[in-house]
Amino acid sequence: MSEQKDVVIIGAGPAGIQAAIHSVRKKCNVLLLGRIERSALFSAHVENYACVEGVKTGEEMLIAGMDQAKRFGTEVMEDDVLKVHQEGDGFSVELESGVTVSTRTLIFANGTSRKKLKVPGEKEFFGRGVSYCVDCDANFYRNAIVAVVGNASAAIDGALTLTGYASKVYLVNQELLASRELIEKLNESTVENVSGTWVSEIAGDGDVKTLILENGKTINLDGVFIELGAKGAMELALEIGVQLDMDTMSHIDTNKKAETNVAGVYAAGDITGHPYQMAKAVGEGCVAGMEAAVFSRKQKRNEEG
């Protein structure tokens, strides 16, 4: 995809969809990335949202919102995002399909949830061999033996990244659920693909030493990276220097215009903190979409001289 985008939105929940609707209606070229089933709203029931009568399922609301965004002209791709980079005055977004998209502005609207394995040893060894961020912690595992656990794009991309650091990399998965291009990269790499099983326990003595699998096998190692689903907003945002809230370092810090500390980068929804409510997500998505549209139009005028 070589076309320059005005606005790229990462996340197809209520914040991302609302951002798309508002930015595309301001005549912007908008790309919305994500899958609605990844949204926390998808499996919820809603009865406290203003002007909506009765109980609605999150799924039907997201489907309706996505149809609306498409009808106004939003381009939608269900690709996972692997990496984001600053590129001159704009940004580039690498997708699991191998496509790289250039954009003038970015909106992070992909939530905050960090999925856990929920197995013995995971909590106990967090920070002592258990990590949730390859890009953050890979450097600590130079010449070590590590495993990545996960079925989707974040796990595969993490395993490939770790081959540049660790002496041995395992990828433990039940079934690979990613693009053909990304799986081909995995198959051509030195990563040992341990497929068809899952983790039953993480064990060690002070630090992680062993990964115990459901098929009865064990892997002796130095570190375990848990990468479930797509890469999270935090990891992607940190790649381009987006600042987190100083108190908890658990949310992206924004102002009333949904702006982050990086010019051209906005955030909306759960990723900006409590309360985790659809009403807040939609309101912030509205602001982020409009502000990103204004910023991208200014950038375009500057480019045209």
From TrEMBL:
InterPro entries, per the entry: FAD/NAD-bd_sf (IPR036188), FAD/NAD-binding_dom (IPR023753), Ferredoxin-NADP_redctase_2 (IPR050097)
Pfam families, alphabetized: Pyr_redox_2
Keyword Cell membrane: no
Every FAD/NAD(P)-binding domain range: 5-285
The entry's keywords: Flavoprotein, Oxidoreductase
SUPFAM superfamilies per record: FAD/NAD(P)-binding domain
Domain of life: Bacteria
Protein name: FAD-dependent oxidoreductase
Organism listed in the record: Desulfotalea psychrophila
